[in-house]
Design goal:
By secondary structure, the protein is of the alpha+beta class. It contains three helices and five strands. The protein has two domains: 48 residues, no CATH class; 79 residues, no CATH class. Strands 3-4-5 form a three-stranded antiparallel β-sheet, with no helix packed on it. The chain has a two-stranded antiparallel sheet with strand order 1-2. Strand 4 and strand 5 form a beta hairpin.
Length: 137
């Protein structure tokens, strides 16, 4: 929380800068300053929107939201018959038991339904598609 003295000092500084411009030039200078600040802020917001991650249901299919539930190994072992891969590099580890089966719901279909294969292994499931850098929409 700033003290009243700090607010007065910053007000005096702004007033001092404005006083350096005479008459109508002062108004023009203040308008240009506020326009520049506004454009800078708008530019920052636009840049953040462009860089924001987009949830993808599959590669190239954006949705407003998705929800993925990964089942535990004991309940749904393996990948439902699919071969495991490492989409983001590395090698598949030879674990004795593993489970990457999942259920998914999205803004297109709000019902939780079992997905196919291993979650995150391909760009055909929401996790793999959203995290895959090549499938940016």
């Amino acid at each position: 929380m700033s003290s009243g003295g700090d607010e007065r000092k910053s007000g005096k500084l702004l007033l001092h800068v404005v006083k350096e411009f005479p008459g109508r030039t002062r108004l023009t200078a203040m308008c240009l300053l506020w326009c520049a600040i506004g454009m800078w802020g708008a530019g920052l917001l636009a840049a953040q929107d462009a860089l924001a991650p987009v949830p993808l249901l599959t590669s190239g299919q954006p949705v407003n939201w998705w929800f993925v539930f990964k089942f535990n190994t004991q309940t749904y072992p393996d990948c439902g018959g699919a071969q495991r891969t490492c989409l983001f590099g590395g090698t598949v580890q030879p674990y004795q038991s593993y489970g990457q089966q999942f259920a998914v719901a999205s803004s297109l279909d709000g019902t939780l339904r079992q997905g196919g294969g291993c979650v995150g292994d391909t760009t055909t499931d929401p996790l793999g598609a959203t995290l895959d850098r090549k499938s940016v929409v």
